[in-house]
Structure formats: C-alpha cells, structure tokens
Design goal:
The protein is of the alpha/beta class. It contains eleven helices and 14 strands. Helix 9 (about 265-275) links the parallel strand 12 (about 250-255) and strand 13 (about 280-285). Helix 1 packs across helix 2, helix 4 (about 130-140) runs parallel beside helix 5 (about 160-175) and helix 6 packs parallel to helix 8 (about 230-245). Bound molecules: S-adenosyl-L-homocysteine.
Amino acid sequence: MVQTDLSSLTFEELAEALKELNLPSFRAGQIYRWIARGAFSFEEMSDLSKDLRNQLSQRFSLACVAEETCQVSSDGTKKYLFRLADGNHIETVLMRYEHGNSVCISSQVGCNMGCRFCASTLKGKVRDLTAGEMFAQIAYINRTDPVSHVVVMGVGEPLDNFDALVTFVRNLSSPKGFGMSQRHISVSTCGLVPKIDALAALNLQITLSVSLHAPDNETRSRLMPVNGTYSVEELLAACDRYTKATGRRISYEYIMIHSVNDTPRHAELLAKRLQGKLAHVNLIPMNHVEEREFSPSSPERLRRFSDLLTARGINVTCRRKLGKDIDASCGQLRARFERKPKN
Ligand code: SAH
C-alpha cells in the first residue's frame, strides 16, 4: 500500500487524510503539532497509544533527514549534508545573526535552471523535494539551535517546485504548527515570471528575493538561461505586480562577477531600472566554483558599484560572507561529496 506522507500535507489535508482511521477530530491537531515539533516517526508521538502509533505507521509516513556530515565554521555557521530517505543528498546551512538563527534550505535535489556561475545546477535536477523534506531540514536543526528565520536559497529553484513550496510556507507559518511569522521567511527565485504572479495572488507576507545579477538582457542572458524565456523587463514588471499585490519590498540579489556585471555602466543602468521602486539591492561577493569560468569582483570594484547605487538613492547592502572556511555556497558541498570516490 502506498503510504501518504502526512508531513507534506496542509492541516486541512491532514485532517481529511486521517478521517479514514475514524479518529476524534482533536487527533489531527495533535499529530500536526508533533510534526511541527520535529517528529520524524510516529513512534516519537508519546501521547498517542501504541496501537494508534502502529496504525498510523502502517498507513502513513513522515519525511525525515539524516545527518551525513556537518561542517562548523569559526564564525558559528554550520553546513549540513543531509541524506534523504531515497539516498539523495541535500545541503542546509545554519547562519547565526544578532536577530537569531537563520536556516538556508534546499528546495530540490540539484537544479535545472543552468545559471553559469552556480554549482547546484551542474548536473541538472534529480527531483523536487516534498514540503515535508523542506520542513525536515529546519526541524532537525531546531532540535539543537532554535530557528527564527528561514531562507529558501539553498540548492534548487523554489518556484519550479511551487505547490510543495506553498504548502511548506503555510505549515511553517501556521499558528497550529511551527508558527514562524511569514515575515521571517524569504524565498529566492531566478525569475520565473508566471510563478511570481501565482505567488502574488496568494498574498503571503514572505519576502521575495529575485536573483537579478544584471540590469540588461545581454549580460543577464550570458549568466542565466532563464533570461531567454523571461527578459529583464518582463521580470521587473512581474516584481512590480508582486509589490502592488502584497505591499512587500522586493530584495534584488546581485552577485558581483569580475568584469562581467560589475562596471559603472551596469551600476548606472541598475539604478535607473530600480529608481522609485520599493526595492533593495543585496550585493553578493561571488563564491568561486571550480567548474565555472567566472571570478569574483575585487573589494574595490564592489565598493565602487555599491557607492554608485547609494549615490543614486538605491537601498543597498552587501551580504556578509559567513562560513568562508567551510565549503562556501550552494551546491558546493553536495558536488564535492558526490565527487569523492565511494568506498
Ligand atoms: N534558484 C533560486 C535560489 C537558489 S540560489 C535563485 O536563483 O534565486 C540562491 C542564491 O545564490 C541566488 O541568488 C544565486 O544566484 C546565488 N549563487 C549561486 N551561485 C553562486 C556563487 N557561486 N556565488 C555566489 N552566489 C551564488
């Protein structure tokens, strides 16, 4: 019999699924809370009778992750390599900030978007993660380090896994469940325009981060194949619609790549494009990826770019590089793990 994964259902769906066991209705809330508290098996649900736990485990399953490796940086950043039930691996990073612990989760095993500077996409997408697997990354870390913020910025394109992403956000923010404020949840996209509109229609209060990385189509298409489908103009128009529908400021991510997108001409055009918008630019020092041709901008070029934006009234920050001494950004740990010869 196919087991239904309860951790990938919304509360309403879970209550519906449990109906076949003829349980009193309060059980749905109880089981939903156990999942939110990080239960990876029905066995852990100690206030349910042994008999009920058995019944549940015959008919249903729960997503879980197992720790394969964990690297701890001198700044406290932790990078986990998790193994999923089917043997696939994903990466999750815990970052410590003054405002609390933020976890960067993966949304897919691999990625199909093909961005030319990124390690996550080198071998394409293996599969989507379920909503339960997205949450399990947080649940696991939350056992030792209470998680207050979540960014969906790890491996994968979250809007290419739309339904699971939305269920995950609803569960993470449900007062019946984990209860995280939606304002503490950020989702990052390479710019899938129809999905940005679909997200806007749900009127969630999450922060949308858009990986812009270039203000003109020529440069952006060189970096990101997705730009061949949705141009810079179409993407920025979708972002405007998103802001109009939700009232939320968009955060534009901009990786600084030497001589490719970091010239004064790029800064001027970026400022022009974003003038008057409810926007924020986050400059990201590029992490060098062995298999990729690009190199990071120097600190001087980064500063010049940042100053030019500031002078034109654009809100800009530069991402602090956490975990420099461990396997840097997205996909690099998984790539390295899978490159290692298996004994
Ligand atoms: N697919 C989503 C989310 C995952 S990537 C997106 O594109 O936004 C998360 C962020 O890391 C993106 O802004 C991505 O462009 C950036 N990134 C990818 N490779 C990088 C690298 N080598 N150095 C710095 N940032 C990188």
